[in-house]
Sequence to fold (407 residues):
Amino acid sequence: MSDKITGLIHHPYTPPEGFAAPQPGVFKASTVFFPNVAAMRSREWKDKTGYTYGLHGTPTSYVLEERLATLEGGVQCLLVPSGLAAIATVALSLLKSGDEVLLPDNAYGPNKALANGELKDWGITHQFYDPMDPQDLARRISPRTKLVWLEAAGSVTLEFPDLREQLRVCRAAGVLCALDNTWGAGLAFHPFDLANEGAGGQGVDISIHALTKYPSGGGDVLMGSIITRDPALHIRLKLTHMRLGLGVGMNDVEAVLRALPSIALRYREHDRTARVLAHWCLSRPEFAQVLHPALPGSPGHAHWRALCGAGEGREEREGLAAGLFSVILHARYSEAQVDAFCDALRLFKLGYSWGGPISLVVPYELAGMRQGWPAHLARGTLVRFSTGLEAVEDLQADLAQALQVLN
Ligand SMILES: *Cc1c(COP(=O)(O)O)cnc(C)c1O
Fold:
């Protein structure tokens, strides 16, 4: 090659094979080369037998997909740009005009917004069911029901449903069920084996996970996954994924791969801190209710114990829960007072999402979020905390000093 620039673009050097290190390499591409036309024509993009185009994956994303499938006990995995994109991809793939989707009343808010927005516009109806009453779910299932969302624990209010019974109801009706597994993170319980009887046990059809939270662990990456155990269902989702043009950046994939080995350590630490603080909050007169599935009085505690608590083969007798808890402040406090309490916190930062090293707080106006005020929740303003990795004594002191603004 006479031209230097052409020469450097088509450079003959290739590094030796056999490089091995703790982290897989970061392979980025839109274009992928084929050795000849026959290979170009015959290569399959739907499985991991080769590479065809960046959107369908590179060695880096393949590695993350396989590791995430293992984490959650599934077989196949699709990566999408956010947890919400995972929710939307499942809905767009499985629902068409005339169908109905059922969501728990405590579902992740934007999942409900999607049902109320685009899905409704496209002739797909929805109903919200009582997450604490499997019979309510059973009553709402009709021949038009094509998808049921499950979520454990519920967003913001953290009620823990009877997942096994909800799954049984869906199975009896022959309806696909998808779990938002962001809270459990593949650690607190086994979404594809809820009976915990090993491979082949009863499990959900689809598990979506906001990798944005614990898998990333840094508060600096947005990504989601869709995990399945049925090849036909996976291909159905993958075709939609392809037609929507969804892809993820390989630097973000690398960030998640980097954080994934420590997910269990971090999850346990977030969990321990949340439990200490939730117990402490129980003793404070400002709170009408403390919501955390591991607290005996919290809605659905028995279901949490049965699914995530002490059991055979569990190394932790106390079970696992994420680093989230909510408090409902007594109704005597005005919204302005609750806002002042949140503003007074120093270590707990005001911010959405969770799963990173920094503790976060968000006040919620429950009235606009639910079909009615649930009987199991006290009246008052709700504040949701997510614990980071700070020392628990410092976080407790922060809560104590901020509570002074109420007195
Ligand atoms: C954060 C979250 C999502 C959405 O994840 P993003 O990556 O922020 O879109 C979905 N479900 C639950 C339960 C979440 O907490």
The two ends are 80 Å apart (CA to CA). The chain has two domains: 37-261, 262-406. The first strand starts at residue 76 and ends at 80.
